[in-house]
Amino acid sequence: MAYKSDIEIARAASKKPIQEIGAKLGISSDDLLPYGHDKAKVSQSFINSVQGNENGKLILVTAINPTPAGEGKTTTTVGLGDGLNRIGKKAAVCIREASLGPNFGMKGGAAGGGYAQVVPMEEMNLHFTGDFHAITSAHSLLSAMIDNHIYWGNSLEIDTRRVVWRRVVDMNDRALRQITTSLGGVANGFPREAGFDITVASEVMAILCLSKDLSDLQKRLGDMIVAYRRDRSPVYARDIKADGAMTVLLKDAMQPNLVQTLENNPAFVHGGPFANIAHGCNSVIATTAALKLADYVVTEAGFGADLGAEKFLNIKCRKAGLAPSCVVVVATVRAMKMNGGVAKADLGAENVDAVKNGCANLGRHIENVKSFGVPVVVAINHFVTDTDAEVQAVKDYVAGQGAEAVLSRHWELGSEGSADLATKVVETIEKGEADFAPIYPDEMGLADKINTIATKIYRADAALMDQKILNQLKDWEEQGYGNLPVCMAKTQYSFTTDPNERGAPTGFTIPVREVRLSAGAGFVVAICGEIMTMPGLPRVPSAEAIKLNADGDVEGLF
Prior knowledge:
The structure is a single chain. Helix 4 crosses helix 17. By secondary structure, this protein is of the alpha/beta class. The protein has 19 helices and 25 strands. Belongs to the formate--tetrahydrofolate ligase family. It catalyses: (6S)-5,6,7,8-tetrahydrofolate + formate + ATP = (6R)-10-formyltetrahydrofolate + ADP + phosphate.
């Protein structure tokens, strides 16, 4: 049977004017700043006006480690939101914006799939409302002002060998990872080594996603460390006097974007830090606003629960005072078979034994999420090739882990296919068993926090840090940054730093290659293994298939 592509389904959607979507949440048209007919920003003044409202229930959607078989975390997030509305609940979805880098690289799109999508799909996967461009511009302004300050006399006495502020671009471009700037003579400044990260790894992105309002945003921007002097004392963005102008560039980007699902339910799409190199969650301001407007808010955290969920629970919830009532872990029969040793080409054939063998990865994620004191529901994202015996094998395994797995067919049927999952999630929340707490306290040392995640979440024997890294962490503790959480940058494909190591491996260590202080965002980044903060394009990038057809419509976005 031939199925329509995601973009074909999205293009055929019966969208409502964004004012009608806002009205479902009590947002008047005066409080919406429209970008066309089907998307708008929600004003800060309106968000301020609803702060006295009672919070709804927060539901986090996470997943097993991603495989080439596909898991469908965003698809499940959207499907669950539609399912909750279908069973009579007032629900909203909160997801991240898509980066151009992976859209033109491997993924080709990030707005859900099938009949569980957020629209307008094409705009969301391209320029949308310009938030990422604003973040790139604000980041680039600071880069320019640092070099300009050095050029015009360097009154701050910046050691040009210790400029730690890297540049960014929202594209996968490996050639920019390590560069030399200011070549060409005296008029171009002082040559130095530098490099680019992808925009979603920018500290400015993290700050926008963790700030409560514009004043908080400007303070955090000013707190960013951009360089060090010869005496190793830090130079901040506020010393460069860039924080005010950066805030001006970000004032519109700070306002959450409102769009809709295929079933015309409200969805906030705002912010987009990667979960393998940043903290992997949508903005605090979007999530907290949604909680004031809906009874149930469904949000996601990027990649597997070892990355996105860990950071959501240890960083975002800690910083924003949030506590999820339930966590949904997404798994597929196909991914279980891949974890059980089946090649991608053979996934269509029934293999119950491989499903059982691959469930260890799912089991570890269930245990990890439960360790935060939050109940778990497993969503089996249905593929048409799944057999009843394979689905039952996953259900039986999950039952043995003290949780329940629900088959959800939202990709194929929309909310009709996710109503059972929505019902189970509501039942789980109403039991009131959530007793959320992060897995390490603020006062724990930075090296111990890194080790705690490595041993308790990844199940490594230890995190390996050389003396230089340990000394750096100790210096930051002495400077007053010891109470910050840590943000692990690690491959998303495995609990280890080897992307080919599937399942639930043991007997390994986590090598920490580098640590970076994100003083404005409020966390320390530990870069593990070979993970890159500037990805590269694959041999055959998605961009090769993306084009306009004769009617002027986009083709090639998944």
